[in-house]
Amino acid sequence: MIKLKQTRNLVGAALLAAGIIGLGIGQAVLQHRAEAQGSAVQSPIYEVDPFWPKPLPNSWLLGWTIGAWVDEQDNVWIIHRGAGGLHNNERGAELTPPIADCCRTAPPILVFDPQGKLVRSWGGPGSGYEWPQSNHGIHVDYKGNVWIGGNGEKDAQILKFTKDGKFLMQVGAFGKSGGSNDPDNFGRPAKIWVDPKTNEAYIADGYGNKRVAVIDADTGKMKRYWGAYGNKPDDTSLGPYDPSAPPAQQFRNPVHCIERSNDGLVYVCDRQNDRLQVFQPDGKFVKEAIYAKNTRGAGSVWDITFSKDPQQRFMMLADGQNERVRIIMTAAASPASSTACIASRRIPRATSTRPKPTRVSACRSSSTKAWVRSRAVIRACSGRGRSSQAVPGSCRFEVLVGAPRFELGTPSPPVKYARA
Known about the structure:
Layout: H1 2-36, E1 46-49, E2 60-61, E3 65-70, E4 76-80, E5 104-105, E6 109-112, E7 118-122, E8 135-140, E9 146-150, E10 158-161, E11 167-171, E12 191-195, E13 200-205, E14 211-216, E15 222-226, E16 255-260, E17 266-270, E18 275-279, E19 285-290, E20 303-306, E21 314-319, E22 324-329, E23 341-346, E24 357-362, E25 369-374, E26 377-383, E27 398-401, E28 405-407, E29 415-416
Parallel strand pairs: 2-5
Antiparallel strand pairs: 1-26, 3-4, 4-6, 6-7, 8-9, 9-10, 10-11, 12-13, 13-14, 14-15, 15-29, 16-17, 17-18, 18-19, 19-28, 20-21, 21-22, 22-23, 23-27, 24-25, 25-26
């Protein structure tokens, strides 16, 4: 028995030594490859943190988590669709009559601190406003106000609250959408972003409309709006996306995200056209980039966020159809202005239903953490701070080096609207 135990110990030690040697050789090979390629690719690496967030109280469960945002204190805000994304067997405690002790739908809006502790929760129908039929997107502006949209069939409104859930303003009215040239209502708005310099709210509008809309963030007054390439929006059906056809002169539905970079440019996700269009704040078209051009279905350009360093050297792009988050090197980080380096990583499965990354947001205080929204899961991914060639087996990146398609177009003036 003693001899057998000694043999097992020797075998275990040998296997451990072999594993260490193998890891060392693998690291040396990766390091050699990284050094051989020089500074051509230096993108951050993100790993899923399996312990974030901490378990929810009150037997709460998330439905479809449809928005994520990180505020100035690095608190992570999410919005989800609750019971609509849960099977009755999952929310048995809230059925009438209850069929089990577990579980219940969490409130629509949940706030976590950077460590994953739940610090605030609220949301849902209330007095004085029309809660969306189907929540979509969440944004916390520079004043600490919380904005949400909705992509339900009749959602034509956006809502504004305080951080504690006090209602402040509704713009648009449920069921009243008049199309992409309606100055008063929206068409299933997907995302909102507020510019701290101008106090204007930019709206990706949306699942029904085909435009960017800009309103005064205090009064809700429409200031301007525009379609693809700065054209006047046109709601004529474009038919199915064809990657071999010339670029569509209008957005396809949905116009799914909107962000403004530190250099003042406005980035818009034209999801089913597989493209990201860039504008000046007045709606003048600047350029566009095409990603995974042959992607049909739901499209490849779902959401973006920028790294939080002042230069914004990286842009993270959520591609839900291909189940990837792409890390795109911007001009500020590129070793040559004609080169862009893209690292794309497949999001691991959380359940038997493959999660699709649809929202991505980075923390404010550093560029080493990002949150990725994928169905009923909110994932925290921590940066490793290494070159993207040094790839750990559990966090595989595919590195693509080359210039994405940026094309100049003929700008058109945006449609401007002023109330009498």
